[in-house]
Design a protein that fits this description.
The chain contains eleven helices and eight strands. With about 250 residues, it is of the alpha/beta class. An eight-stranded parallel beta barrel has the order 1-2-3-4-5-6-7-8, surrounded by six helices. The chain is globular and about 45 Å long. Bound molecules: 2-phosphoglycolic acid (PGA). 2-phosphoglycolic acid binds near residues 8, 167, 200, 222 and 224.
Length: about 250
């Protein structure tokens, strides 16, 4: 099974910039070797889907857990699905740490995504202080434990392990760090252990292949380096070249 290479544009690339990105996004990779996903801002979703020339899946970066209601500025999972999204990032570290989402809200959003027919990509990861205090396993088990019930009925879902200290900082986990954390996530997933687990946090063309060749690393979730079509294209190519090592998914 191919690696997943996902781009999270965060609050970058409006509709015009999204179309410009796709006019230049032409990675060289064997069909079926990589699954490419994009998470553009909601307002750029349509322009992205219309202009993408390579096969790719599209998703939203966040949803509200309610179907509809008096929640100014929010978007429901149903609305995202209706607009053509197939995936939803859930519990990204910026949602957790900038917007204050806790495990209960993340779980409610994961459930809402599944009910609307979206594929949740649930993000987990420890703060630097938690890692230094030796709490990596405890934090990951808590965050994964909070969503397993909510996604149990999903036809498909993914986890992204993103150590908070590595996001947007230029600090990257080593392939060994990633493998260690992914093994914890995989074990915490229990019966759902065959879900792809992506690594995120300062992924670049230079480290993407070694990260994706580490045991249990099924792909990457890329922030800053997904904004440039040539740079992101090189990460896609790294995904196509990475060795597949996944003891659970490919025994
Ligand atoms: P980064 O972001 O690649 O810029 O570190 C990753 C993410 O937040 O998903």
């Amino acid at each position: 099974m191919g690696k997943v290479v996902a781009g999270n544009w965060k609050m970058h690339h409006g509709p015009v910039a999204a179309a410009a990105f796709f006019s230049r996004f032409k990675p060289r990779f064997a069909p079926d070797s990589v699954e490419i996903l994009f998470f553009p801002p909601d307002l750029s979703l349509a322009a992205s889907m219309e202009t993408a020339a390579v096969p790719a899946g599209f998703g939203v970066q966040n949803i509200h857990s309610a179907k509809e209601g008096a929640f100014t500025g929010e978007t429901s999972a149903e609305m995202a699905r209706g607009a053509g999204a197939r995936f939803a990032l859930i519990g990204h570290s910026e949602r957790r740490h900038v917007f204050g989402e806790g495990d209960a809200e993340v779980s409610a959003k994961a459930g809402a995504a599944v009910r609307a027919g979206l594929i949740p990509v649930v993000c987990v990861g420890e703060l630097l202080g938690e890692r230094r205090a030796g709490h990596l396993e405890q934090v990951l088990r808590r965050q994964v434990g909070a969503i397993v019930e909510a996604v149990a009925a999903a036809s498909r879902f993914m986890v992204a392990y993103e150590p908070v200290w590595a996001i947007g900082t230029g600090e990257t986990a080593t392939p060994g760090d990633a493998a260690e954390a992914h093994a914890i996530v995989r074990s915490a997933l229990g019966e759902l252990a065959s879900a792809p687990i992506l690594y995120g946090g300062s992924v670049k063309p230079g480290n993407a292949r070694s990260l994706m060749s580490a045991p249990d690393v099924d792909g990457v979730l890329v922030g800053g380096a997904s904004l440039d079509p040539d740079v992101f294209g090189r990460i896609v190519e790294a995904g196509a070249a990475a060795e597949s090592v996944n003891p659970v998914r490919e025994p």
